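User: Here's a chain of 283 residues. Predict its fold as tokens.
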Amino acid sequence: RPARLLREITLIAMASSVWMRSLRNALVVPRASSVAVKAGKAAQGRRSFFASKNLFSDALSVHRDTAYNNADTVWDFTPENYAKIDDVLSKYPPNYKRSGVMPLLFLAQKQCEHMKEHGNTGWIPLAAMNKIAKILDMPPMRVYEVATFYTMYNRSPIGVHNLQVCTTSPCMVAGAYKVLDGLKAHLGVSVGETTKDGKFHLMEAECLGACCNAPMMQIAGPVTNDAYYEDLTVESAIKIVEQLRKGETPKSGSQTGRHGSIGPQGKTVLLEEPNGPYCREFA
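Assistant: Prediction complete.
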């Protein structure tokens, strides 16, 4: 019996060794061929999976001084925004006021939408980041790190009207890419680009929480102020763009005229006053 057991253990070890060798070959060979394929595509200027514009490191995290964006640029918050800053910082203990860096960056970006000297477009100049660092008593580099990490912050001027088309799953299956392609063709730009007249910037956005009214887009800017435009078609999206081009304010919300998220058959449930229990009065 000991000899038989030893023989079985030896056979199992040999089989395991063969299996591991086969597995290693199966993993290594395709990986090498995959690397070769990707290298070939790279040499031809093609990417493997993503169709969006290729973003390089200097577009994401490197600052280049320009005449309109450098440490000596004149920039300060308005008195109204200083009041908002006081309100934001009141939510944090004094020794944790650095936690307010994100809302202050957002305030700076929204303020630039209404500053003619900064193109009336939502972006954050270097001088604004330095001002935020002083307000929060933190090294400027810490502010730069936050601003370069989150894609919601623009560190260079974009178009006056920032068209943010949601392409997440519900919007995608409802035709978001048709809307996006229609806007690209109409504006003559790709995703991540600004029109030559500086009026419109086009980008893809992750879920904006209006899935029932898909497809939709959010438009940031001094006219629309982050309004939602829902139930879009290519035609209605282009119509909105042309209204903005004329200086008009397009109607926000559903572009098919429905109220809220009520379906095409109208209201079908909750037609009567619901039974209790009712909310208690906390007087």
